[in-house]
Amino acid sequence: MFGEVEHEVELQVPASDAWDLFGGLEIGKLVGRELPQLFEKVELIQGDGGLGTVLKLTFAPGVPGPTNYKEKFTKIDNEKRIKETEVVEGGYLDLGFTLFRVRFEVIEKCEESSIFKSTIEYELKEENASNASLVSVQPLVTIAELGKNYLNKNKVAKEAK
Fold first, then answer.
1. What is the mean pLDDT of the chain?
2. Bet v I/Major latex protein domain: which residues (predicted)?
3. CATH (one of 3.50.50.60, 3.40.630.30, 3.30.530.20, 3.40.50.300) for 2-160
4. Based on CB atoms within 10 Å of each CB, which residue in 33, 45, 67, 121 is the most buried?
5. Cα 34 from chain centroid?
């Protein structure tokens, strides 16, 4: 069984500024600091934010779905501004998923505006099909809003200088 969910939000910043946040480790650091209701911890296990980087995400108590998992950066395209991560240990894999991939894309709209698109793609064993209900775009919506607010705040600070 294959599925996909996605979310888009418009950002009032250039695509290059948005990619600086979403394309590497910065969004993980921000999420770890600013979203304790969603993530208890975001730990860097290996890497520097480039291809092959591994993070361990530990969700806050009460968040539906797995309690934690490790994800690996499997694709980073700085030209097209696309980053993909896949769960490589625990979490969704323990629940019958054979693939759980998150893609972040920053799409240039115009010079001062861009779109942040996040997508979850998953494959699930048929005998675990009921676990598809655990897949939710809501954490990505929360992360996108956090990123949007952070970028807007930094834009105002830059303009004030």
1. 93
2. 3-131
3. 3.30.530.20
4. 121
5. 14
The half-sphere exposure of 121 on its side-chain side, counting CA atoms within 13 A, is: 8
Q: What is the dihedral sign for C-alpha 144, 149, 153, 155?
A: positive
For 49-73, the pLDDT digits (tens) are 999 999 999 999 988 889 999 999 9
Q: In sequence order, which residues have a C-beta less than 8 Å from that of residue 74 and are 6 or more positions away?
A: 51, 84, 85, 86, 101
Which of 70, 83, 117, 148 is catalytic? The answer is 83
The pair of structure tokens assigned to 36 is 């304790």
Domain ranges (residues) in the chain: 2-160
Please, which residues have CB within 8 angstroms of residue 53's CB and are 6 or more apart in sequence? 25, 44, 46, 47, 72, 73
Residue 109 appears among annotated catalytic residues: no
Q: How confident is the model at residue 158 (pLDDT cuts 50, 70, 90)?
A: low
The secondary structure of residue 25, as a DSSP letter, is S
| Gap between the Cα atoms of 70 and 58, Å rounded | 9
